[in-house]
Amino acid sequence: MLWACIVLPHLALDTLLRRRLPDAEAPPLVLIDGPLQTRHVLDADEAARAGGIAPGQPLTTAHALLARFDAVAHDVALTARQHDLLAAWAYRYSAEVLRLPGALALEVQRSQRLFGHWPGFEKKLRDDLAAMGFRHRLALAPTPLAARALADAADGAALTEPGQLRAQLAKLPLVHAQLPDDLHEAFARMGVHRLGALLALPRAGLRRRFGAALLEHLDDLLGERPIPRPRYLPPDRFDARIAFNFDVENLAALAFPLRRLTGDLATFLAGRDGGVQRFVLSLGHRGQAPTRVVIGLLQPEREAGALFESARSRLERIVLARPVEWLRLRADELPPFVPGGRDLFDLRPEHALPLAQLQERLRARLGDDAVYRLEATPDPRPEHAQRIADDAGRAAVPTTLPRPTWLLPQPVPLRTHGLRVLAGPERIESGWWDGGDLRRDYYVLETAEGQRAWAFCPAGERPDALAGWMLHGWFA
Amino acid sequence: MAEPLSLTPLLESRQVWHGRERPAPAGGIPSGWPALDAALPQGGWPAHALSELLLPADGVGELALVLPALGRLATRERPALVVAPPYLPGVAGWSARGVDMRHVLVVRAAGSEILWAMEQGLRSAACGAVLGWPGEADDRALRRLQVAADTGRTPAFLFRDRRHAAQASPAALRIELETRPQPQWRVRKCRGGQPPAQAFALSRAGA
């Protein structure tokens, strides 16, 4: 087995940064942690680091160094959720994903058959992470912990020969071995600085002095016992939330966080090999019930662009009465996704859009019922002879009777002159069973303007050429 | 007096070039109306372009011209998009003219959304044909539609009032329908050829 380890040294900070609206005026961001009295800097963005702020400094020192910055307390739950989402992302590349503290490991030997050999595979992973906005280090080794240690020591290292594992690890500084309970400090005091020196020490003595956990860790590192950690399984629903540090008052400003959320949803769905047909956007207001926007799609979808576009056009239709504090995307039903097939010899142009996506786009902007098919019904009454089809519609039964191509929704008096009867009458007498009883004689008329009308009069009462006709359609 | 020359020997000795043998630009969609196909340089409706029909009123035979072609263009994979029709399409009437209504998507839209919906349909290349009743549309809007029809390689039919005939149009084909002295149509503009001077009688069989 070969494991790729992705170390995320700035996971908490990147989680915050990618949620921030892009703004050149934004003050430097500093992530702080610890109890109220002894706050210290956990991480700082580039602008803050340029100002001299470094992780580990007390907050008071940071304030002395830099006049103005945003200090955000570390939200452990938020970082954990982001870690989960990244595991869901990694799941699309491998069925075996491990969550390590501040890192992810995924088994890639079997995945290489699908995603290609390591250098190309590595680039795919790095491109995805860069697109999502996560700084990372990446290495390949026969065990997850060895990959972790290698990634810490040398970004991009790849160790593919299990036989060389011990020799290569021996060269590594002990600090990268992620020993339990920070034991590397104790070993440093003993003069043991490299992993090789530690591995050379007698096991019995180590067990007596440091406990079994250390030996198990070393065995995991060298792959000398099976990997016992619980494997990651993706959850059955998606729920993500972005809180703003200021009130958002116009919808245009929601586009950026919405793109992040729908992008994360697409990433999650790709990992699960599923799609989404219905999801809910909630817009949170201070002290008020959130505004809910339900996005229903005609068929399961998982492409980030399509999800974003559907959500945005639905969002554009609402009226924002109150400022928005947070945005939440929740998807409970995740049906299987069947990608639409395209013909190999399909010569359609570049920006071609599948029919379903076109319908989705029209529906999103014009309303859910604005795109429809019509179907014929067996009812002979013209008002009931056709209806909006629920799905694909039924085939019409061909008729030899004159039927117009334009139908008026309601008959109206025909106000014109010089009418000429071309055909008729055709008596339609029906509907006694549901109260919509009608008895009419239908005629095909030609108006003086050359239009052909489908008009009727009460049965048996043919009016003169001037008045009394009810217009019901046009033969266009 | 010279002998009157007979054309046949000249033609047989291939000294005379047949002006009419010039190959017509291909790619027209047969309209189902022989007179119309003969009058148009492509031998039918322009395939990837805008055709404009100018009407004196609704219901003068504009659908009769288009529906036979639409019956072949609209398929299950690529249905026809009918944007903002002035009335309800009559299922029985359209079916009688060869259009399978299962393959027709009607779009309800108003104002500028009509042009937007048409453009989306054309650009997507997911439709067999796009029909639209845009009402007011300026030269720029029509040009957008023409470009979209070209990009999406989809025929578009635009139905407008006759008073727009004087307005310049980027459509590849413009046909004006007349009702006086008799129902007839006249080609106002056709790309790739001279519009024929005479009008053609519009026969509306089945109406």
TrEMBL record, chain A:
Keywords: DNA damage. It comes from the Bacteria. GO terms for biological process: DNA repair. SUPFAM superfamilies: DNA/RNA polymerases (SSF56672). Signal peptide: none annotated. Residues 19-150 form the UmuC domain. The keyword DNA damage applies. This is UmuC domain-containing protein.
From TrEMBL, chain B:
InterPro entries: ImuA_translesion, P-loop_NTPase, SulA_CellDiv_inhibitor, UCP037290. Keywords: DNA damage. It comes from the Bacteria. Coiled coil: none annotated. The keyword NADP does not apply. GO terms for biological process: DNA repair. The keyword DNA damage applies. This is CDP-6-deoxy-delta-3,4-glucoseen reductase. It comes from Dyella thiooxydans.
